[in-house]
Amino acid sequence: MSTPSPTQITVFLNPEDEEHALYLIGESFTSTTFTVVDTQEEQVTWGTVFVLTHKEKRLTLALSAPVTPTQIEEVASLVTTGLILGFVVRGEIDLGERAIHNFE
Asked: Model's pTM, two decimal places?
């Protein structure tokens, strides 16, 4: 039995987009399974003079294998389209011949 990868990806998104975002993230991780290990939803306020308030959901996904640069690029494309607000990768990143670790 193999040890699961300690790699996690945290995705920030609008709660209304959760189902669609998880579907597209699943498409990016076809060779890797992921499990939602934590969810948090909060009201976020931006600015002091002009205040913008919106709901934001944070999903933490545990991956069964290290993330690859291609997978990172595919998730980043969801940021550029506006489906997700951002993401953070913590853990192991597979660079082909070597891996790097981002545990901070």
From this structure: 0.78
